[in-house]
Amino acid sequence: MFIGHWSAAFAARAASDRSPKLGTLFVAAQLVDWAFFIFVLLGIEHMRFVPGITAMNPMDLYDMRFTHSLIGSCIFAGAFGAIVWVFTRDRFAALIAAMVVLSHWLLDLLVHRPDLTIDGAPPMFGFGLWNYPWIEMPLELGLTYGAMWWNARRTDGPPLPLVILGLVMLAMQAFNWFGPPPEAGAAVAPMAVLGLVGYAVATALAWWVGTTRRHR
Ligand SMILES: [Zn+2]
What we know:
Shape: globular
Number of helices: 8
Bound molecules: zinc ion
Number of domains: 1
Distance between the termini: 30 Å
Number of strands: 4
């Protein structure tokens, strides 16, 4: 799951005007991946490229013990919720932010091969939809653009910023799905940096979109 994680951000923002801003929720939805890519660069967590390990995704995510364990995700969620609470003094906003952080693990559970854990050690979990492109692709696009559409229905603002965000996300997803595949054993640092840059660009655009829209 890549852009599909942001469906939780669009939906949470649509649900209530008291939810955190869209840019904040974009960070929340990918917070554990931000941490994963940074941890990969620091050598704290590990991945490697094994083309064919799933039909759609060549990443062998063999060590994500902190960021993609359920307990780790809960800690990230609690910490992010606490930060939102400090800035807003709004328990509802903090709870929504934490739930969006936690949604990441649940959406990953659908698509990953069994590489997710509860506490960082086996057993491993993952329903493996990355092996079923004709299920995964419509699911990811449907979640993302369904939630975006609901957000657009619940808020007022010029359509152009939202359309630009939607197209940039689509371009990123297309590159992820159809771009040149990495070779077996290729260096992972460039991919981690590219991931962080992509998340930063999408988040900056989402922050901009958030400034242009008001709840009806
Ligand atoms: Zn993830």
